[in-house]
Amino acid sequence: MDVRSNRREQGGSSAITANRLLDGRTVWLGAHGWSEQIAEARVIANTDIEAAIEDARARAAADSVMAIYGVQLLPDTATPEPLTMRERIRAFGPSVHPAFAISPQEGQRHE
Amino acid sequence: MPLLESGVLAADPWRPAAEDEPIGAGDVIVPLARLDEGLARSDPGRLGVLLPPEAEPSALRAALPGLSLIAVTFPIFRDGRAFTQARTLREHLGFTGEIRATGKPLPDQYEFLRRCGVTTVEVPEGTDPAPWAREHARFDVAYQPSILNETREGFALRRIPG
Amino acid sequence: MSDTATRPLPVGHYTYDQVDHDFLRARVEQFRDQVARRISGELSEDEFKPLRLMNGLYHQLHAYMLRVAVPYGTMDARQVRMLAHIARTYDRDYGHFTTRQNIQFNWIRLEDTPEILEQLASVEMHAIQTSGNCIRNVTSDEFAGAAADELVDPRVHAEILRQWSTLHPEFTFLPRKFKIAISGSPHDRVAARFHDIGVVAKPGPDGAVRFEVFVGGGMGRTPIVGVRIHDHLPEEDLLAYLEAILRVYNAYGRRDNIYKARIKILVQALGLDAFREKVEAEFAAMDRARYRLTPETVAAIRARFGTPDLIAPADAPAKLAADRAANPHFDRWARTNTHPHRAPGFICVAVSVKPAGGIPGDATSHQIDALADIAERFSFDELRVTHMQNIVFGHVRQDELLALWHALGEAGLATPNLGLIGDIIACPGLDYCALANARSIPIAQKISARFADPTLQEQIGRIHVNISGCINACGHHHAGHIGILGVDKKGEEFFQITLGGSAEDDAAIGQIIGPALPEDATVDAVARLIETYLTLRQEGERFLDTYRRLGQAPFKDSVYATA
Ligand code: SF4
Question: Is C40:C34 a contact under the CB 8 Å cutoff?
């Protein structure tokens, strides 16, 4: 996957994301496996992120996910929120279709 | 390495020329750089040559009468230059010997290879021929003429592949 | 053929026979097999990706995206209803019409794709070669078969090219994708000079049609206006000549750098004369009899197209004139959204899929169904998708135009902005596209909302605004009178403005006017460009004309002097 417009910084923390093989949907690595909700994502210090990504990649086939990478998070948010617009759109849905949005607060899809 | 011909595995009577050794007798495939040496060989046997993807097929024009096999190659399956090379060898140079595909072609490309004039495909040891056979039999129609001069089907450009 | 006895052939597109149906069914089975191998883990993503791309299945930001081919943009109502069904059943109730006359579904599940392709196949549709480094869907003129200046119906030749390019053994693994457009009239309505190959019909000396062939045009990172490689190609050599061009490209096109792999780079590197020499050498050496396009072949394909019975009541024009006089809203729409038809009493209708503030090219399943109904009622069961992301009804009786307009209004599709500033072309951008730098849709929505007033739009006149979310230029920003390109500045969305592009007979590439701006400042900048134009224009000038007469300075000043 092209991770253009997704930059990770030296400090701070990140979450790990992927896409599910069967339906292609964006998922986030949480305490209990992959979730569609970024609210459930594990927040990982950037010092540990590469190792965590490696672990996740090793299990990718078994977990039926693909294109695993780390996403820089904004500091100090109630629930995890990505830094870049690209990853915010992946996490919360297209900005032009409020009907399909997932709000960071509720972590719910309004469908 | 095993060979595929018409969707089934076949024995390969050819061997590649060993580096830094005389070509010797038998059916040998030489690299393009050793073509002259191969043509001048006095040992009995048929001669083949490996045409790299960037080479012009017309470079073989003078050598064709002495060649029984030309191997074209796919460094990656997406590099489709060998299709044009094979078709050029057949259509423009009138080569009637074996054209062999080497490198990394996919079963899904099998009919394309055949319709461009490739006769055999070199596959890795242990290859399951089933997907190749499946793709060989997949379509009952083709939508454009090819060097195989297949029978026309119905109207327009359609052909029945053999 | 077997199926023709039961119903008349659909108007405007080729009708499959049993052989074509069998082929498509085999293709669906092949993909079903590939998907099963992917899901079982037998194929890795790396191995599967090129296979799914050959069937139009991408992976975008949120899900898989399926791009369905609409050959030469033409469909019958049954096919259109199938698209609505797919949107409803497998997607989130909408589809997106693209600038290449295709339709995309954004929320597709991998598991569902074999079933979707099977359903599409039942109405003679597919997603073959809508992606990958092969010959893509061949596009043609949206007024095909209807325009007064037409020499041939280009859809017959586009269909011939579609068949010829389908699973072409030699040209399915080209250095890069390959786009062909064909225009049946000398007036280029297909952006022929912005395609890898553009074919434009022209009258021949003996009354037979000839083709002008352009090569090496394109947008993307290196926008280039295509050059004429053949001035008067006879019809019978069309396939042979295209084969020759593609052979030269397949043999010599660069494969070491994806950004330099299109044919335009090869043509530039060799120079047109050297490139033409190679093509001519190939053309001279090839077995021309094998590739000859005989009049019988053309006739056989043409015979698979239904033709409309263009008979209108003698008073149809008078009825239309009276309807227009009685209703100023209808009159305005008729002024902007119609095009003359070659047959007396008929007219072509262009439907804007771009309501003020809407998403360019997006249509709900309800709207797609409504379009099918209207096609059935008013236009011989046929409609076309345009490269402007709009819809055309090709053959409408003038006395029925008012009723059609009412039907469009009920579906929210009667926006009178065709060719005006609200008729913006925008790619999906960062809201969907995995390659994007910035969002294109919100800016399009803001511009079209700012200029929502139809009277103002008409005052501004003909203008093309094109927006791309990255340098791949799917929104054709290089060819916009005003072009907007999304760029990434340290993770933030910025937009670069270009002026002076055109995709028509006066093809040109827009020039950048200055530093990139944030989204809202870009919308303001467009407003100031328009004000400047309105102040400086002379009688009868379009935005582009004024820009070309005065040059960049006054426009640039208007944007940056106060910015
Ligand atoms: S122009 Fe860029 S952002 Fe827009 S659709 Fe094309 S690749 Fe995606």
Answer: no
* Residue C127 domain flag: no
List the single residue in A1, A66, A95 with the smallest CB-CB distance to C434: A1
Query: What are the distances in angstroms from CA C158 to CA B157, C71, C137, C180, C481?
Result: 14, 8, 9, 9, 28
Residue C469 reports pLDDT greater than 70: yes
| Domain co-membership, C155 together with C235 | yes
Q: Which of C268, C302, C336 is a domain's end point?
A: C302
* C134 domain-assigned: no
How many C-beta neighbours within 10 Å does residue C343 have? 15
Domain span including residue C65: 3-121
Tell me, what's the pLDDT at B156? 76
Q: Rounded to an integer, what distance in angstroms lies between the CA atom of residue A4 and that of residue C128?
A: 28
A31 touches chain C (CB under 8 A): no
One domain for residues C481 and C356: no
Please tell me whether residues C195 and C284 are part of one structural domain.
yes
Which helix (H) or strand (E) is C339 found in, with range? strand C338-340
Mark yes or no for CB contact B81/C250 under 8 Å: yes
Please indicate whether chains A and B are in contact, defined as at least 3 beta carbon pairs under 8 Å: no
The matching CATH number, chosen from 1.10.3470, 3.40.50, 1.10.287, 3.20.20, for B3-158 is 3.20.20
Q: Which amino acid is located at C175 in the chain?
A: P
Test C300 with B92 for CB contact under 8 angstroms.
Answer: no
Q: Answer yes or no: is C128 within a domain.
A: no
Please tell me the distance between residue C530's alpha carbon and the centre of ligand 1 in angstroms: 26
Is the minimum distance from the CB of C468 to ligand 1 under 6 angstroms? yes
- Is there an atom of ligand 1 within 6 Å of C429 CB? yes
Q: Where are the domains of chain B?
A: 3-158
For residue C177, what is the nearest residue in chain B, using CA coordinates? B78
pLDDT one-digit tens code per residue, C174-231: 999 999 999 999 999 899 999 999 999 999 988 889 999 999 999 888 999 999 999 9
* Chain C neighbors of B157, CB-CB under 8 A: 160, 163-164, 239, 297
Indicate the average pLDDT of chain B: 94
Domain spans, chain A: 13-100
Residues C232 and C150 grouped into a single domain: yes
Identify whether residues C263 and C287 lie together within a single domain.
yes
Nearest residue, CB atoms, B138 vs list C30, C50, C168: C30
User: Considering only alpha carbons, which residue of chain C is nearest residue B89?
Assistant: C286
* Contact criterion met (CB below 8 Å) for A42 and A16: yes
Say yes or no for a CB contact (<8 Å) between C92 and A100.
yes
**pLDDT tens column, C37-49:** 999 988 888 889 9
Q: How many CB atoms lie within 10 A of CB C203?
A: 12
Mean pLDDT, range B72-92, rounded to an integer: 96
For chain B, what percent of residues have pLDDT higher than 70?
99
Distance CA C167, CA C215 (A): 22
Same domain, C443 and C514: yes
Residue C129 located in a structural domain? no
Taking 50 as the threshold, does the pLDDT of residue A4 lie above it?
Answer: no
Q: How does pLDDT run across C347-373, given as a tens digit for each residue?
A: 999 999 999 999 999 999 999 999 999
In the three-class reduction of DSSP (H, G, I as helix; E, B as strand; rest coil), residue C291 is classed as helix
Question: Do at least 3 CB pairs under 8 Å connect C with A?
Answer: yes
pLDDT tens-place string over residues C2-11? 444 456 899 9
Q: How many domains is chain C partitioned into structurally?
A: 4
pTM for the model stands at 0.93
Residue of chain B with shortest Cα separation from C246: B84
* pLDDT level of residue A3 (50, 70, 90 thresholds): very low
Q: What is the pLDDT of residues B45-59, one digit of tens each?
A: 999 999 999 999 999
Sheet (strand C64-68) strand order:
C57-59, C64-68, C103-108, C94-97, C362-364
